[in-house]
Design brief:
Oligomer: single chain
Number of strands: 32
Number of helices: 40
Shape: elongated
Strand content: 5-15%
Radius of gyration: 38 Å
């Protein structure tokens, strides 16, 4: 072999003698290609790292390379990996791993509890989680099988043979019929359409329903029938598989010619064929190497801030557990002594109670107490929170008709339930400025041509500004024959219906309208008449501009791969219409780097023109020298349009000489045929060539020096603006500040040496507007605030250019608008309109935050209370590790007796109604400040948990010393512990009701059901006599343990007056502290929501009275969804407010940004003299929640 490296490795197969004979000529003409004559190395043919070589219609030649098959699998597990991988996923959670260790410890002799106490809850949690994983994976498997078994026509022996998709191979020639889906990434070869084009729909890729045009290479148009297609032998050299949907680089070597391939010749898997009988193509990428599959990745995993803080709380509980165990273990080592002869601590005593080895006693007791106090970590916390968040997402957010858009039949969609509470803590919102806020409903409204403004309409923003300034705008009367059409809202008789010919600049008007009609990628559909034609555009901007050209008399009605036909009116003389065909020589498409689109076209008379449209920043800097007055006037008009809330676009053109074009086109084709960095070379080349085209002589400067000067200027401006902002902030009544920065300055401001100053300045301002920025810059600004300020951020957008910003923020919201579904597919939540963000944040986000905080705090409280009663008992038993409660009590405490009520709170608790949440947006500040999940709040719950555990243990045990049952016997251990457990169950459930802001029937059912469930269980359990020794079968071992019988305990207790007195007094004494604390806190230190509650305590939820956006046109499914969505809003049976709240002044002062400290004595005096109007008793249905 001549040469070395990858360039010398090719296929050993020759196609024909013609190909071999012309080898030298090809190598001479194509210097960037390597020889196609190579050898096979080993079993697998190596491929060059930069590109792959494919032989079309020749499976034998492709076999040594072993391309991947077309079968896909999106499952997470298989039969062999499900159990080990599933368990590994579950035990990655610290809590599950902890309980696994506890379960193992419980099987050892040092455990005071039987293994079932820990094994059953853990097994239940794991079983539920694994079943959920199995169900989801089974659905994926079924979907994969359906897709893999779809059939496709493949060329075999000069016939079309139907085979399943999964048997398709790279290089196969396939036929796809109309409305069929492409089974792989296919090189487009031939079509039934005479012009070599086909139309595809990419809705499965990006959600866009607009048809896209694809064109086959002209040399392959004949390979349409099976006989002709079987003669096709070609070599494709293309890029390696990647996930870029909009780029493709390759060459097709056929008939001794090299044809450059672009994305216009690639038909992607998942797209469908439209308006074409069938197409023929060659398979390029298969299976998981197709572009759509390489893009099928999950949205970046996000954890909520509250969940990370929950981990810290769990660690604090671990610390508490370790401290309690250390106290008990050290106490055991000190207490164990032979002087307590009645304990029988002789020579043969077991190691855990051997006085001769205090260290071993301490160690073994440590393990004993770890298993005994294991309930301090709530095993059901994560499962309960996941269940609550899932129901919040699927039943409340997804089915809220206040976020349902009737026009597009689009409800809100929570794509993840992990971030519900994060919606209630967002401090900074990053929004796509243009399309997101304007809903991408683009209308042609105004224009400026040759320094003259046309268009008489007035925007809503202009009206709003005038109203705030006390002015009235006199709108011009509409023309009698004004045109009304989607995308066209323009009225000016000076240029309508050919009147532009009478203007002072008719030539400029004519070129302006032709640019609108020619410079685009729109596809026409339907009849070729202005009234019935439909335009398929990649964006609403394009459709609006083409519609405007039509109404100005330049009607674009037909497109072929090389021609655009425009019906021009009133050009030569009024009333005359001509169909003019313009040959499209080159189309330089829009992208976020170039920010413009250009078309080189040839007129019928041979005139060459480059039309260009794009952002003003890139167009103005490429304009020819001169006409400075016109440039300045146009800039002023653009600023006026922007101030009126309009989206602006600049149009320009230049006549090209044939020599200039031929020179440019030769270089352009060379760059277009490059296999390496083709897109980069094209971008660089197009930028420089358009500069020459629009402005032939561009002043050259030192780019390094220019960059240094701009960076220094940006630094000075940042410093200056920061100083001014500081002065305004320190002022008493300083104005609200806004920072405006464009993309070029932002590029330098994001430099590591300046980004700190940019961040500090941005945080002082109330708003920051970044103009004309790239998608990367959007993500960089979002990350800057997210990481630098350590605040919770939300990004919202509706286009593919917003994806990076959406994924960079804590919470990403996609708008399912008119720019496709890429933003939605990358988001955490999806809504149809920007205005729905109010409900999503102020209502659902705030409620979710309050509910989850309350659920976490309650779990912490009830488990700590239960465990501390066991801890106090340890001091009475010589630190021996004797258990206070029966094993089944401990097992079912979290699973049954206290499980359901907390879920009801997580679903239905509500401090104020949805309408009040939006009426008082200041309430949202409580989530931003995280006032309900701080260490102070944890300390308050811990204090009352500590207090109540003392009451439960010492009140019950002390009062039982002189208690007797009906037979005269004193109470034993299991009598006292059952009494204490009954008080714990009743009290913690009643405590939950005290924490609720609204109480629905679901609260009563869950709390009452939990208490009744305990009594039903103890009646049955204590009525069954079981043997002292019970054997339990655990996977891998059989354990026997001693079981102390609680037979007939509850019946003995309920036969005494002591039981009823204790059941009445203990909960009252235990909850008295909470009652007093809540009263004092509400009276003297109220939260903002409590003040709003008091203001509106006699009002019911008026959200029901507000008209639904969908009106009365509800289907049964929508009505049912609405009913479900209304469940949390059920009216309460009581107000729940025991005290009048002070602090009205401070609350409303804070709304205005003024600090007004509360005066407790003042508000207490005012509250005490308030008189309640008589006879104001409200019906039960009108009371406040």
């Amino acid at each position: 072999m001549s040469g070395g490296g990858w360039d010398s490795v090719r296929s050993s197969r020759r196609w024909s003698s013609n190909r071999s004979d012309s080898k030298e000529e090809e190598e001479h003409n194509q210097p960037y290609r390597t020889t196609s004559r190579t050898v096979t190395l080993g079993r697998v043919q190596p491929q060059p790292p930069g590109y792959r070589t494919i032989w079309c219609n020749d499976r034998e030649a492709n076999a040594p390379i072993r391309f991947k098959g077309n079968s896909i699998s999106t499952t997470k597990y298989n039969v062999l990996t499900f159990l080990p991988k599933g368990l590994f996923e579950q035990f990655r959670r610290v809590a599950n791993l902890y309980f696994l260790m506890i379960s193992i410890l419980s099987t050892t002799p040092v455990s005071p509890v039987n293994p079932i106490t820990n094994v059953v809850p853990l097994s239940l949690v794991l079983f539920v989680s694994l079943v959920k994983e199995l169900f989801e994976d089974w659905k994926r498997f079924q979907n994969d099988m359906t897709i893999n078994n779809n059939v496709i026509d493949v060329l075999q022996d000069q016939n079309w043979v139907s085979i399943p998709w999964k048997k398709l191979q790279v290089g196969d020639i396939v036929r796809v019929n109309q409305d069929g889906f492409f089974p792989a990434d296919i090189l487009f070869l031939a079509t039934t359409n005479p012009d070599g084009v086909c139309y595809i729909e990419t809705a499965n890729l990006d959600g866009e329903t607009n048809l896209k045009i694809r064109k086959a290479p002209e040399k392959t148009w004949d390979y349409l029938t099976p006989e002709q297609a079987s003669e096709f032998k070609g070599e494709v050299q293309c890029e390696q598989p990647n996930n870029s949907l909009y780029t493709f680089t390759g060459n097709l070597l056929v008939q001794n010619q090299t044809l450059p391939l672009s994305p216009n010749q690639l038909l992607l898997r998942g797209c469908s064929l439209r308006n074409t009988e069938y197409i023929v193509g060659a398979v390029i990428f298969t299976g998981h190497e197709t572009k759509v599959m390489m893009n099928a990745m999950n949205v970046p995993s996000k954890r909520s801030t509250l969940e990370r803080k929950l981990d810290k709380l769990i660690l604090a509980l671990f610390g508490t557990l370790f401290t309690m165990c250390c106290i008990g273990a050290i106490g055991s080592g000190v207490f164990i002594d032979r002087k307590y002869f009645y304990l029988g601590l002789g020579e043969s005593v077991e190691n855990q109670f051997n006085p001769d080895n205090p260290f071993l006693v301490t160690t073994l007791t440590m393990f004993t107490l770890i298993t005994l106090y294991s309930t301090i970590i709530p095993i059901s916390l994560y499962v309960s929170i996941e269940m609550i968040k899932f129901i919040q997402s699927t039943q409340f957010i997804n089915k809220d008709l206040h976020m349902y858009h009737a026009e597009t039949n689009t409800p809100a969609l929570a794509r993840t339930s992990n971030l519900n509470e994060e919606l209630g803590q967002v401090e900074y919102i990053f929004s796509d400025k243009t399309g997101t806020l304007t809903r991408n409903l683009m209308e042609y409204f105004k224009c400026t041509i040759g320094g003259e403004v046309y268009g008489t309409g007035v925007t809503e923003i202009e009206r709003g500004i005038a109203e705030r300034n006390g002015m009235t705008i006199q709108e011009s009367s509409k023309s009698a024959n004004v045109i009304r059409e989607k995308g066209f809202n323009f009225d000016d008789a000076r240029i309508m219906r050919g009147a532009w010919r009478n203007e002072s600049n008719p030539d400029a008007c004519k070129e302006f309208f032709r640019c609108l009609a020619i410079c685009h990628t729109v596809l026409p559909e339907g009849e070729e008449s202005p009234e019935k034609i439909r335009y398929q555009a990649a964006s609403p901007d394009e459709a609006a501009l083409v519609a405007a050209a039509k109404n100005f008399g330049f009607f674009f009605f037909r497109r072929t791969p090389t021609m655009i036909y425009v019906r021009e009116s009133h050009v030569e003389k009024m009333g005359q219409m001509d169909d003019v065909g313009y040959e499209i020589l080159n189309v330089l498409e829009f992208n976020s780097t170039r920010k413009r689109q250009s078309v080189v076209c040839r007129y019928p008379d041979g005139r060459l023109v480059l039309y260009c449209k794009g952002a003003d920043t890139v167009i103005f800097e490429r304009l020819a020298d001169g006409q400075n007055d016109l440039k300045n006037i146009t800039r002023e008009h653009l600023e006026q349009f922007g101030s009126a809330g309009l989206r602006t676009l600049c149009l320009a053109y230049i006549d090209l000489s044939p020599t200039m074009y031929e020179s440019w086109n030769e270089k352009f084709l060379q760059a277009k045929s490059s296999l390496r960095d083709r897109e980069k070379k094209l971008d660089e080349f197009i930028i420089s060539s358009e500069t020459d085209a629009i402005r032939e002589a561009e002043e050259k400067g030192d780019q390094v020096e220019i960059a240094r000067v701009i960076k220094e200027e940006v630094k000075n401006e940042l410093n200056k603006s920061y100083e001014e902002a500081q002065q305004q902030v320190n002022a008493v009544n300083g104005p609200k500040l806004t920072l405006v920065i464009d993309g070029k300055c932002l590029m330098y401001a994001l430099d590591p040496s300046l980004r700190g100053k940019l961040l500090n300045l941005s945080l002082i301002c109330h708003a920051v507007v970044c103009c004309r920025v790239s998608p990367l810059q959007k993500a960089q600004v979002t990350s800057l605030v997210k990481k630098g300020a350590r605040k919770i951020t939300l990004s919202i957008g509706d286009g593919a250019n917003d994806v990076s910003m959406i994924q960079a923020a804590h919470v990403g919201v996609g708008i399912s608008g008119l720019e496709g579904m890429q933003a939605v597919m990358a988001s955490d939540f999806a809504i149809a309109q920007f205005r729905f963000l109010t409900d999503l944040l102020l209502v659902h986000g705030r409620w979710s935050y309050l509910r989850v905080c309350k659920v976490v705090m309650y779990f912490f409280y009830k488990n700590l209370t239960f465990t501390l009663t066991q801890f106090w008992f340890t001091f009475q038993t010589g630190f021996s590790g004797q258990r206070f409660y029966d094993d089944w009590f401990q097992s079912l405490y979290n699973v049954i007796f206290t499980a359901l009520p907390v879920i009801m709170v997580g679903l239905f608790d509500k401090d104020v109604s949805a309408s009040l949440s939006k009426r008082y947006p200041q309430l949202y500040q409580e989530g931003i400040k995280n006032v309900f999940f701080t260490w102070r709040v944890v300390a308050v719950w811990a204090f009352f948990s500590f207090y109540q555990s003392l009451v439960f243990f010492y009140f019950v045990t002390t009062s039982s010393w002189n208690g007797h049952n009906y037979s005269g016997k004193i109470f034993g251990l299991w009598d006292v512990s059952t009494m204490a457990f009954t008080c714990v169950v009743v009290s913690v459930n009643l405590r939950l009701l005290m924490a609720c802001n609204s109480i629905t029937r679901w609260h009563y059912i869950s709390v009452g059901g939990s208490i009744i469930g305990w009594f039903m269980f103890i009646f049955v359990y204590s009525g069954i006599q079981t043997p002292k020794t019970v054997s339990i079968l655990i996977p891998g071992l059989i354990c026997g343990y001693k079981r102390d019988n609680v037979y007939f305990v509850i019946f003995v207790l309920m036969g005494t007056f002591y039981f009823y007195l204790t059941l009445l007094m203990v909960p009252i004494i235990a909850l008295l502290g909470d009652f007093l604390y809540q009263g004092v806190q509400r009276w003297f230190f109220p939260y903002d929501y409590q003040i709003v509650q008091e203001i509106h305590k006699d009002e019911h939820d008026d959200r029901r009275k507000t008209g639904l956006e969908v009106g009365n046109q509800l289907t049964p499914e929508e009505a049912r969804s609405y009913a479900v969505a209304q469940l949390p809003r059920e009216l309460s049976k009581h107000t729940g407010f025991a005290f009048d709240s002070p602090g009205y002044e401070s609350f409303f002062a804070s709304q205005l940004g003024i600090y007004a400290p509360q005066k407790a004595w003042d508000v207490a005096r005012r509250a005490s003299v308030r008189s309640k109007p008589k006879g104001s008793k409200k019906p039960k249905s009108e009371r406040h929640k």
